[in-house]
């Protein structure tokens, strides 16, 4: 069975990885990865190297991302991605193509496949992020897909409502957490030495809000003000924003923060999955507006401060504390987190043997 896998970023590749490793080793499948988006951007760490470093050799590359990230550039990149994938789907044929999440590049690649009757299998459909236009892209991808692997039952119900039936919908849990208990994290002393993190730290990721784009300059200032004060109490390890509308607004502010507090602030372009999970395991808590905090952090016994509306509507475990994009609110919530220990509750996104479940379904279609 010939399987294509659409991967547009460091994030989705890390989520796919447990399944990709099993697909690679199973002779039933012929696996090809289609890398595009920020994988090919030196500005975002050129994470194509991560794919190759994990032993994947059948990799197609499609470059369509622009340097700028204003609204016109994102719209142009969407169109360019669509055009390039129109040629790609004409020349390449698969029994099934895996796609994941809600990125605009992923949506463009999938939409280009509709006239070619490409059979898509979508991961993480049915979720809701009202503060990001990704919400629209996610549902577009779901409508274009014939198989759906969701992270929890409420998301399966939403996919059913979107497509009008329950055919091809499987509730499997979050693929990124598959086998996390047996995962060999980087030993803490080695991790700290590699990234020069000598003391306690907060793991931070902020992305722009892509619905209310006009507010991002205000949000970046509020974030800067909060992080300046939090850095006086604990070190900050910050993973950089992805390629979203107005992402450079946040990047520029974070670079300025590091210049002011070089001993307290570490900026990381790309951790990779093992290092990121190691950072999650060793940090005091998470702060920002990224989906990884909501989906994965509970399994590492960490509390999360979810800021603003980017993840609004996404189902949360009891480890998540929500606050507004306001410096005082962020500082106050951070002070509360500094007084708490580990989170000891459950994670609504976790199910056992997710990759094996997906693999067994793929062999029956």
Automatic annotation (TrEMBL):
Domain UDP-N-acetylglucosamine 2-epimerase: 22-363
Matches recorded under InterPro entries: UDP-GlcNAc_Epase, UDP_GlcNAc_Epimerase_2_dom, WecB-like
GO molecular function terms attached to this record: hydrolase activity, hydrolyzing O-glycosyl compounds
GO biological processes: UDP-N-acetylglucosamine metabolic process
Name of the protein described by the UniProt record: GDP/UDP-N,N'-diacetylbacillosamine 2-epimerase (Hydrolysing)
């Amino acid at each position: 069975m010939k399987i294509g896998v659409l991967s547009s970023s460091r994030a989705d590749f890390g989520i796919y990885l447990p399944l990709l490793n099993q697909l690679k080793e199973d002779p039933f499948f012929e696996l090809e990865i289609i890398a595009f988006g920020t994988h090919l951007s030196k500005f975002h760490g050129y994470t194509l190297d991560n794919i190759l470093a994990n032993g994947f050799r059948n990799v197609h590359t499609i470059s369509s991302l622009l340097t700028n990230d204003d609204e016109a550039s994102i719209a142009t990149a969407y169109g360019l991605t669509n055009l390039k994938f129109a040629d790609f789907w004409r020349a390449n044929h698969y029994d099934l193509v895996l796609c994941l999440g809600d990125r605009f590049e992923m949506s463009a690649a999938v939409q280009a496949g509709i006239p070619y009757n490409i059979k898509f299998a979508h991961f993480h459909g049915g979720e809701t992020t009202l503060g990001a236009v990704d919400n629209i892209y996610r549902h577009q991808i779901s409508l274009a897909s014939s198989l759906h692997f969701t992270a929890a039952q409420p998301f399966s119900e939403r996919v059913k409502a979107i497509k009008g039936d329950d055919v091809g919908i499987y509730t499997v849990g979050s693929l990124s957490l598959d086998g996390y208990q047996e995962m060999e994290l980087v030993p803490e002393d080695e991790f700290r030495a590699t990234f020069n993190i000598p003391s306690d730290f907060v793991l931070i990721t902020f992305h722009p809000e892509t619905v209310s784009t006009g507010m991002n300059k205000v949000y970046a200032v509020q974030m800067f003000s909060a992080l300046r004060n939090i850095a006086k109490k604990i070190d900050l390890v910050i993973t950089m924003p992805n390629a979203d509308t107005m992402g450079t607004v946040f990047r520029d502010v974070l670079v300025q923060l590091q210049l002011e507090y070089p001993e307290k602030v570490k900026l990381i372009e790309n951790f990779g999955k093992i290092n990121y999970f190691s950072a999650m395991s060793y940090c005091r808590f998470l702060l920002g507006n990224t989906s990884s905090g909501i989906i994965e952090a509970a399994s590492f016994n960490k509390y999360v401060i979810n800021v603003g509306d980017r993840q609004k509507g996404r189902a949360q475990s009891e480890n998540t504390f929500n606050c507004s994009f306001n410096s005082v609110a962020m500082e106050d919530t951070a002070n509360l987190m500094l007084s708490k220990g580990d989170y000891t509750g459950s994670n609504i996104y976790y199910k056992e043997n997710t990759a094996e479940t997906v693999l067994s379904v793929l062999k029956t279609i």
